[in-house]
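Hi support team,

I've been running sequence recovery on a batch of backbones for a student project. Most finish fine, but this one hangs at about 90% for roughly twenty minutes before it completes. I'm not sure whether the input is malformed or the queue is just slow. I've pasted the structure tokens below so you can try to reproduce it. Let me know if you need the job ID as well.

Thanks,
M.K.
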């Protein structure tokens, strides 16, 4: 019997070792860093894209050679490339000239920089599902990096005889605008006439130049460059909601940009053994974002004092419409009150009329930190954040703070940055509508997404958020 037990134990040990070894082999990563030590961004992109055929297209256009072996691997993948296929890609790229590899790395870095939520929204806004090539990259499986790469190839590596597109540049501009929309250091927001379509820039370009030159007297009007775009993207009301752009409803947006030498660049040089200060004219821009459906006009300009007058110029010239330009209030949410259970008492005692109850379903928190990395031999500081989501099942009798303490060992959330809160407000019975729930999602600092089906519900939600000190408008 002892011998039999020993044999069985040894067999089980061998089987477990084999299974463990198999799991290690299945989970192993590729050898990208060893094969391409100077192409961190390319390696990262190849691991992420769900349309690897785009990477093949990028390599073929950059090298000028057909790569049927890589195309076969991409076609077989049906999504992300497996480890063995990535290895083949890496070895292929390693054989390219150093100049080609460096150019690939540079453009791929730009693709990855469009990978955040703002960039994903921007890329989505310039893609047109009615175009066959755009529709192909939008089909599942799809991802934000593949969509950005598609635009990059059309711009930086266009097919022979095909006009170079500028949509990738436009998406980069839109990404910056999405980021800057929240900050009064970069932009101001106004309400104009709803439903007015802007005139074509060719018809009003001379007048627009003249008016801008009057506002900036030192700028010759013939040196003002004006460009106009029409796109489909998220409305201003949606920009700050915590969701990927993939499934959002889109609205028509118009962007007009006037660029001119309106600022001064200061720099120092060593000349003949002395440090000499130089000041040269530098380009600045006034960028307008206009939503006909809502009448929302945003002016992006580093000269804050000139924004209202720029908005007036846009109204007078581009919209050719009389009337006033009014400041558009921006909602701002302070979620700090949700960091302790004291908020439960506020939700109980500070309810407005016609709201029977309010419950907290979810709280998302983040722990911001800085991490030092070395990229290309240079030290880089990255601002990162670890995130935690505390959720309560709707059938759970505990409140969200009990869940945080008992399930997440988080007794006090004030040590974190509160990112998002999800509530359920119970609306009382009304003369023409029965009692019902309204889900409310608040994202710091400006995002509000509620499931109100009537204007009355929406007004109650806003009034309730103001009552508990979460919402302010300025």
């Amino acid at each position: 019997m002892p011998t039999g037990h020993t044999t069985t134990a040894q067999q089980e040990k061998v089987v477990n070792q084999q299974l463990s070894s198999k799991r290690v082999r299945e989970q192993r990563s590729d050898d990208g860093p060893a094969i391409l030590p100077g192409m961190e961004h390319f390696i990262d992109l190849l691991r992420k894209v769900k349309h690897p055929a785009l990477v093949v297209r990028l390599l073929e256009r950059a090298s000028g050679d057909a790569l049927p072996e890589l195309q076969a691997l991409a076609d077989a993948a049906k999504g992300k490339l497996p480890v063995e296929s990535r290895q083949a890609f890496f070895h292929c790229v390693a054989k390219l000239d150093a100049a080609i590899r460096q150019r690939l790395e540079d453009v791929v870095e730009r693709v990855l920089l469009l990978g955040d939520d703002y960039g994903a929204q921007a890329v989505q806004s310039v893609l047109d599902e009615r175009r066959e090539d755009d529709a192909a990259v939008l089909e599942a499986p799809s991802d934000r990096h593949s969509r950005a790469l598609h635009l990059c190839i059309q711009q930086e590596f266009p097919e022979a005889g095909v006009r170079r597109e500028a949509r990738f540049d436009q998406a980069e501009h839109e990404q910056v605008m999405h980021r800057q929309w929240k900050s009064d250091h970069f932009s101001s927001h106004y309400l104009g006439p709803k439903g007015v379509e802007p005139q074509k820039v060719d018809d009003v370009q001379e007048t627009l130049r003249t008016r801008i030159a009057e506002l900036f007297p030192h700028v010759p009007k013939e040196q003002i460059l004006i460009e106009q775009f029409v796109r489909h993207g998220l409305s201003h009301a949606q920009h700050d909601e915590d969701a990927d752009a993939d499934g959002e409803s889109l609205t028509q947006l118009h962007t007009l940009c006037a660029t001119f030498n309106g600022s001064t660049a200061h720099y120092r040089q060593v000349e003949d053994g002395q440090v000499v200060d130089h000041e040269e004219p530098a380009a600045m821009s006034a960028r307008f974002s206009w939503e006909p459906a809502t009448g929302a006009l945003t002016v992006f300009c580093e000269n804050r004092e000139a924004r209202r007058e720029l908005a007036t110029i846009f109204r007078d010239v581009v919209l050719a419409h009389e009337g006033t330009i009014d400041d558009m209030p921006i909602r701002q949410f302070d979620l700090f009150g949700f960091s302790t259970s004291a908020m439960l008492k506020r939700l109980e005692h500070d309810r407005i009329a016609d709201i029977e109850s309010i419950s907290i379903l979810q709280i998302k928190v983040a722990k911001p930190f800085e991490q030092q990395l070395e990229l290309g031999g240079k030290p880089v500081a990255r601002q990162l954040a670890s995130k935690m989501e505390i959720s309560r099942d709707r059938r759970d009798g505990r409140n969200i703070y009990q869940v945080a303490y008992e399930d997440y060992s988080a007794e006090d959330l004030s040590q974190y940055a509160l990112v998002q809160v999800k509530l359920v407000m119970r609306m009382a019975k009304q003369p023409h509508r029965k009692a019902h729930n309204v889900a409310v999602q608040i994202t710091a600092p400006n995002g509000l997404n509620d499931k109100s089906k009537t204007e009355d519900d929406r007004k109650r939600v806003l009034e309730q958020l103001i009552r508990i000190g979460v919402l302010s408008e300025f």
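--
Follow-up from support: It reproduced on our side and the slowdown came from queue contention, not your input. The radius of gyration is 28 Å. No action needed from you.
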